[in-house]
Each structure stands twice: as structure tokens, then as C-alpha cells.
Amino acid sequence: MKKIPVIILMILLAPLASSLSIDIKPVYQPGETLIAELSGNILEPIEFEDVVFKTGSLGNVNVPLEYDVKKLGDSYFIYAVLPSSVQENPKNYSINVLDVLTTLNGVQQKLDIQQNFTISGELIPYSIKPGFVSASSDFDITLISNKDSNIDIETSLPEFPVLTLKPGDNLFRIKIQSLAEGMNSVSFGQYTIPVYINKISAPPDPSVLEINKFKIFPSRIDSIIVFGHAPVYPIRITNPGNSTISNIELIYNENLFSITGFSGNLSSEQSVELNISLKDREVSKNISEVLIVRSQDFEQEIPIEIFFTSEAEKATTPYLTDFSESSLGKLCKELNGKFCSASQTCSKDTINTIDGNNCCTGVCESPEETDYSWIGWLIGAVVLIVLVIIAGRYVKSRKSINPLDKKLGKA
Questions:
Q1: Where in the chain is the domain with CATH 2.60.40.10?
Q2: How many CB atoms lie within 10 A of CB 37?
Q3: Where in the chain is the domain with CATH 2.60.40.1930?
Q4: What's the CA gap between 229 and 217, in Å, rounded?
Q5: pLDDT at site 209
Q6: 17-124 sits in which CATH class?
Q7: Exposed, middle or buried by CB within 10 Å (0-12, 13-18, 19+), for 134?
Q8: Are strands 191-197 and 91-104 parallel, antiparallel or unpaired?
Q9: Among positive and negative, which fits the CA dihedral 70, 72, 77, 83?
Q10: Is the pLDDT of residue 125 over 70?
Q11: How far is Cα 179 from Cα 175, in angstroms, rounded to an integer?
Q12: Could you give the C-alpha distances from 223 to 139, 231, 387, in angstroms and in order?
């Protein structure tokens, strides 16, 4: 008889268990970043204070963690940096989401959701935060290394195929141009984080940025170099206007960088290349600096991110691949090109330059004028033929005399 209430209870709880779910791993290492996905029919926003982490023999002891919750697309995501040291190993924890408004058998109800997990094993080599991103512009990711020496991790980002993590915090700026609109899954070593990109409200971020009357290529410098190497980073400043820009100022960390090739003035339709280099070849700490280009009351920041690696095959500076051939930092006329009129077409594929998007390095061709006079002659000929046919029939009918008229004539 006792089995009947238990069965009934299980039947009643079955829809509850299936209506909402928290997707997490069963076991985590100390210091690991937990990334959870909460899915189901959620009718009200989940707030920060609705998420609670608990432990204890009865599961009733709140655990203060660094965490956050946010809706990305159709699902809610929660991340938390777990404790790096635990007195008991393994130790049981739970993630709890309180007062979630959902439907149960078609009826709206508020439910508490709980998912258990265990922290066990050795300290994780590195953690990541945040564990998810919603962005409409470039954003930062921090990777915290728990090792005493550098470690390299691979990523799914084209601009950072390999990241070198130094002991402690490592901050990286991620460009949204390498990500698709909407939901993305981006891997950083052992972590894969959801990244939701909304480019609709984001300002355009082309490789060339306009600073009032002058433009700069590239818009930022990202580089991975081998320890002990000191490459030169060229940047191009162009004045596409009709007047000279004077007193251009460069503001940068002079203890770290050396910049050559610039006098401070830029004549009309002139480009100049600056060379940025590291003063000290023995620098081994990741560099995150900014070059400020200022003219009168206007200025633009050019981020400079340099990371170090011990493996030569991992060294890369993407923008240098085609810097000398790139048209983005040059005027159309520097490429012996011109802009065709609206009625003309270019004999080659047009290219994007600093002063326009349709620079033609071929020949601007006007459409050939078509002579439609033959149509008039054709219509005239058809009309003439029709008239001849009508006239012929008329003459023939005049020659044909009625037989009655003939008899009357003889009488």
C-alpha cells in the first residue's frame, strides 16, 4: 500500500524534472570556472540574487562565490569561479536557482531548481572570467593562471590562435569582428564559453579609423612574438584632405617603445609610415599599451597588445601579412587608381582604399551607345508593306464588276 503514494509522487514530479534543467558537469576541480546553461520555459527574468550556491552535510550552507547570470539568446547562463581550496576533497556543492516562474502541466508556477556537483582533485591550471559574454563591441577576457611558469593554450579565435598565460591574471581584448552575429561558442583551452554578439547597435569597426581629417591603418596592433625578439610594427597615417594637418602629437609609453619616421605635420593627400619598436629585447611580460594620435582637439587611441611565446611557430602578427600590399591605408591615387562615375564601370574589380570603397585601378568604361534607328526603319517598312497590301486589294476590287451591272450596260 505504501508504494502507491510513492508512485503517484514520482508521476507528479516527472514533469517538474523535465520542464527545467541546469546543464553542468558532475565533477569540477578546485578553482575551476563553472559554466552552466539553464533551459526551459522561463517566463520571468532570472536575477542575480536568484542564484545561490550551497554546501554542507545538509546542503544548507551558502557559499559566497564570484558569479553572474545572464540571458543569451533563448537560454540563461550562469558562471562561477569555484573555491581554489577545499578542506574536504571531494566536497559536495549545489547550484540553486530560486523562484523560477515556469509552467507545470500548463499552469504557471514558481519553482526552485537545484543541481548537485562535486569539487575534487588538484587545483585547476587556470580559470576564466567571465564565463559568458554579451557584447556589441570589443570585450575583455581574463584568464587566471595558477601555475608558477608560463603555459600556452589554444583558442578558436583567428587573431589569438595561441595565448601564453603568465602566473596570475592575464587580460585579453577580443574583437567582435572575428565573431558572427548572434550566438558563438569560443574556446580558450579547456573552456568553451558562450558569446552573444549584437552588431546592430555596434559602431562599425573597419581596419582604418578616421580621425577627423586623417586616417590610420591598422586600427590596433595584436602580436605574438618569441621571447628576446623585438619586431618593428609599422603604422600608416594618411591625410586625404585638401589642407595640411599640423602639430600631430604622438603620446605613448616612451620607456617601452621607440617610434621613428614622423615629423608632426602631414600635407594634403600625403601618407607617412611610423615604425614602432620595443626598446628592450629582454621584455618578457605581456604588453597592453595604447598609442594616442592627437591633432588639435581630436585624438584616437590605437591599442597595442603584445604577447610572448617560447615557440617560434606560434609567433604571429596578422596585420603585417599584407601591410605593404594592403590598400586600406592608402589613397586611391597612390595606387594609380581613380573613381569611376556612376554611369561607368571598372575593367577590374574595385578595391577599398582610405578615401573610398570603389577605387578602380583599371579603366573606367562608359557603356556603348546602342543605335536604335533600325527599329524605326523596320516599323516604317512594315507599315509600308501593309499599305501596299491594302492598296492592292482595293484596286483589285475596283476591277471586279457585278454581273447585274454588265446586263444593264448591254440593255
A1: 209-323
A2: 15
A3: 17-124
A4: 23
A5: 47
A6: mainly beta
A7: middle
A8: unpaired
A9: negative
A10: yes
A11: 8
A12: 17, 10, 84
Question: How would residue 189 be classed by pLDDT, with cut points 50, 70 and 90?
Answer: very high
Give whole-number Cα distances, 2 to 8, 11, 66, in Å: 11, 15, 45
Q: Give the separation between CA 18 and CA 39, rounded to whole angstroms.
A: 10
Which fold is adopted by the domain 125-204? Immunoglobulin-like (2.60.40)
- Report the Cα 129 to chain-centroid distance in Å: 19
Residue (of 271, 246, 274) closest to 258 by Cα position: 274
Q: Give yes or no for residue 190 having a pLDDT over 80.
A: yes
The rounded distance, in Å, linking the Cα atoms of 303 and 291 is 6
Distance, CA of 193 to CA of 186 (rounded, Å) = 5
Query: 333 vs 6, 350, 359, CA distance in Å?
Result: 84, 13, 9
CA–CA gap between residue 282 and residue 265 (Å, rounded) = 33
Average pLDDT over residues 393-405: 60
Q: What is the pLDDT of residues 17-35, one digit of tens each?
A: 446 889 999 999 999 999 9
Mean pLDDT, rounded, for 189-210: 68
CATH superfamily of 209-323: Immunoglobulins (2.60.40.10)
Poorest-pLDDT segment among 29-33, 96-100, 136-140, 200-204: 200-204
The per-residue pLDDT for range 256-304, each reduced to its tens digit, is: 899 887 777 888 878 888 899 988 877 778 888 888 888 875 677 888 9
